[in-house]
Design brief:
By secondary structure, the chain is of the alpha+beta class. The protein folds into three domains: about 90 residues, Jelly Rolls; about 80 residues; about 90 residues, Jelly Rolls. The chain is about 40% helix and about 25% strand. The strands form three sheets. Strands 1, 2, 3, 4, 5 and 6 form a six-stranded antiparallel beta sheet that branches. Strands 7-14-9-12 form a four-stranded antiparallel beta sheet. A hairpin with a 7-residue loop joins strand 10 and strand 11. Helix 3 runs parallel beside helix 8 and helix 5 packs antiparallel against helix 8.
């Protein structure tokens, strides 16, 4: 496989926002910083990448323009993995499939926390529960408003087109380790620790926060061939929601981390589908967070 080791000097741009991406990277030595609108007046620093972390993978997984710019902090050594060699890379490094999923999962977790904070802040200000001009609120607002300004005018909700081809292929393939549920059956409960993820092959799954309680909220509905519960497979954290079958004869496939290593050899399109699903979720959540930050910006400036 044609992976390439490269070294970048301090301040050198490794990937640039808006460029098409046909490869992704893993940091071997040093650190790099991720920016939105790098070099512009509304530049925003998003995070710092350290050895072992991946970046640029979403552009390869979903054939999507680079969403940010990554700049070397001092001398940085990376390995570049061409997109066309992705499945070969997985076959030669099966443990890295889970590493990439953990990377995407951690980004989802952090973005979810930011999104929930922004939503709560908007509700508190709108209801007059907090003073929007106070120092403590201004500190929180600054982060969210900066995110809105950095994406203003060039952030849109992703379409489902990128997932359709993989869904069609996966739905026609054979499945193993399946369970069938009747309407109303709980697949897993919020607070439980899980070691597997699921792929829907028939029926509809409802994902709930505080299921069965007065403050129950339906977060989303999932249809074939969508995935859920992946954070339980790639981390030791408890389930953040409850999954419930909404129709009779709801069929789900159970997938463990070790299964991914076999799937990349026997049925690589399924691994591709899982990664696309995570990437798609991340883009959707980014858009929802951006929209909430926009609402905060407009509320603050009333």
């Amino acid at each position: 496989m044609s992976t390439i080791e490269k070294t970048f000097s301090n301040g050198e741009v490794i990937i640039k926002e808006g460029d098409s991406g046909n490869s992704f990277f893993q940091i071997l030595e040093g650190t790099a910083t991720v920016y939105k609108n790098y070099g512009k007046d509304d530049q925003v620093k998003l995070t710092v990448l350290t050895p072992g972390q991946y970046f640029g993978e979403m552009a390869v997984i979903e054939t999507y323009p680079r969403s940010s710019t990554v700049v070397a902090d001092g001398e940085v050594k990376v390995v570049e993995i061409p997109g066309e060699d992705l499945n070969t890379y997985y076959r030669e490094n099966p443990d890295e499939i889970v590493s990439i999923m953990k990377h995407l999962g951690n980004r989802l977790k952090q973005l979810t926390a930011d999104y929930n904070e922004a939503k709560g802040l908007f509700t508190d200000i709108e209801k007059g529960a907090v003073e929007k001009k106070s120092d403590s609120i201004l500190t929180k607002l600054k982060k969210h408003i900066s995110f809105y300004m950095s994406g203003k005018g060039n952030l849109s909700k992703p379409s489902a087109e990128a997932l359709r081809e993989s869904k069609d292929v996966v739905s026609k393939g054979g499945i193993e380790n399946v369970e069938t549920y009747s309407k109303g059956q709980i697949i897993f409960k919020q607070g439980e620790v899980g070691k597997c993820m699921y792929m829907v092959h028939g029926g509809i799954i409802g994902i709930y926060s505080n299921y069965g309680k007065d403050n129950e909220v339906k977060l989303t509905e999932l249809f074939p061939v969508e995935c859920f519960g992946e954070m339980g497979m790639i981390s030791d954290e408890s389930r953040s929601a409850t999954a419930v079958a909404l129709t009779d004869d709801t069929t789900v496939e159970i997938i463990y981390a070790d299964d991914l290593k076999n799937l990349i050899i026997t049925y690589p399109v399924k691994v591709d589908m899982i990664l696309r699903h995570l990437s798609h979720r991340l883009r959707n959540l980014t858009y929802d967070y951006f929209t909430t930050c926009k609402d905060l910006y407009e509320l603050y400036n009333k």
